[in-house]
């Protein structure tokens, strides 16, 4: 068996690879990167590295050759037109290389969103299904990193978190949990033609967030609704489905996702 992972130099790819090393022999893993510098940490560990650039179709077929499983980590390019073209290159190369199973990092509950980003993931899923290659869609929740835009440290200093009015609920979890689930799927046989929504199993609210902040800071933090708040993130959150949940992740990793209190520690740095 050989497991080929694209985007292996990225934050999610690195976490998945590290988890996978605990589950399968190292000689079954192939890390795909697009530069010499990002290849080095893997080469030093003795992991096989292949060059792969989504913009260079000629690099992809040889990168994917012999793959029993190809984990395609979605492109991080900010332009959706370019990103879709890159995804098309990867899918065409997977077909030509006769990849046996194609796993794709999609976005959770894309059907319920009203902006192009989740629709791009949905279009990529459809393009993968059209190839006939057995697939596994890992639909990732919005990473909990989004709370980095809320300046929790200042909110703790002030003793209040101000948010726009609304019934805000979130399914966000840390990348680490998503990586664990992806590694579990990669290491096990099966999971063919399945779609997993990798989210928290129950939603959390801003009240839960302020409670977790207060507990970590050992001081009160209240929640205030403020209609004058201007922060792009709320516009984005309103246009995606950031709240629907599923038990898929919990079932794949054999435990609930990381608690909110634990998840927000890196964003508070007290
Ligand atoms: N669910 C969410 O909240 C969320 C948030 C942000 C992004 N995402 C998506 O999830 C993916 C993984 O997240 P992440 O945190 O690991 O992102 P990341 O750290 O930015 O990693 C992106 C990876 O994609 C690689 N890549 C980008 N363009 C490429 C190309 N043309 N050819 C080959 N490889 C290319 C990068 O390679 P280099 O190291 O060479 O740049 C890097 O390894 C992102 O790419 C994005 O599509 C999801």
UniProtKB/TrEMBL annotation:
<dbReference type="InterPro" id="IPR036291">
    <property type="entry name" value="NAD(P)-bd_dom_sf"/>
</dbReference>
<dbReference type="Pfam" id="PF13460">
    <property type="entry name" value="NAD_binding_10"/>
</dbReference>
<dbReference type="InterPro" id="IPR016040">
    <property type="entry name" value="NAD(P)-bd_dom"/>
</dbReference>
<dbReference type="InterPro" id="IPR052718">
    <property type="entry name" value="NmrA-type_oxidoreductase"/>
</dbReference>
<feature type="domain" description="NAD(P)-binding">
    <location>
        <begin position="7"/>
        <end position="189"/>
    </location>
</feature>
<protein>
    <submittedName>
        <fullName>NAD(P)-dependent oxidoreductase</fullName>
    </submittedName>
</protein>
